[in-house]
Amino acid sequence: MSTRLRWYVGTSCVAGGLVLAFLLTRLDLDRAREVAAAIAVFAAFVVVGELVTLRVDDQNRLKEISITSTFAYGLIPLAGTTVAVLVFILGSVVADLTRHRGAVKTLFNAAQYVLALAAGGAIYHALGGGYEITSETLPALAAGGLAFMLINFLLVSIVVSLANDMPILQGLRRDNLRLELGSSAMVLALAPVAVVVAERSLLLLP
To answer: What is the pLDDT of residue 124?
Structure first.
């Protein structure tokens, strides 16, 4: 591991840990208890989504697409950013341990999700989003989703560039941002649908 990569991974992990520590102070236990069943169902989908992915061949490079983002991001309006982050960490760690990935990669992946999802949640709440999805909160949900996608894309693209000893800007240009955002947008667009359906009946989600 190069020095630059070591510093980047270390900084990301520390930042993720600090953000997580802050989010834990904002945990809404009353809301979590109120929608505990929905959280459990969404968490199950997040874990399964991390384990089962769809692979897409993009210019001889495999990209993985999963349903994880639908339910992880959907947890923000359903139960709050802290719960969403904790569930995403659970799914990421379970998947990485199942695939026998190293401790450093497991920690980085978890930190990456913390930072990206926390950014999305911050934008969503800053623009007036709450526990109820309405036509008024949809712009906030879309803006938060965009922030989540962009931060996640940048964090992954940078670490891949450094791991391949490639200039970061060249790595960003190499990665297909249109494909990444397009596929992520399709998955995230289902988040409000999943939340609304869950509020009606959890049995309708599958």
So the answer is: 94
Tell me the H-state helices in the chain: 3-24, 29-34, 36-51, 68-79, 81-98, 103-126, 138-163, 168-174, 177-188, 191-200
In this predicted structure, the answer to whether residue 55 has a pLDDT above a threshold of 90 is no
Burial of 167: CB neighbours in 10 Å, binned 0-12, 13-18, 19+: exposed
Please name the helix (run of DSSP H) or strand (run of DSSP E) that holds residue 63, with its range, or none: strand 61-65
**Run of H or E residues at 25:** none
Q: Which two tokens stand for residue 202?
A: 């959890």
Residue 109 has pLDDT above 70, yes or no: yes
CA distance 117 to 16: 11
CA–CA distance, 193 with 103 (Å, rounded to integer):
35
Residue 170, token pair as written in the block: 């060249």
Query: Could you tell me the pLDDT band of residue 188, with boundaries at 50, 70 and 90?
Result: low
Are the C-beta atoms of residues 100 and 59 closer than 8 Å to each other? no
pTM metric for this prediction: 0.85
φ, ψ of residue 64 to 5 degrees: the values are: -105, 130
d(CA 56, CA 78): 30
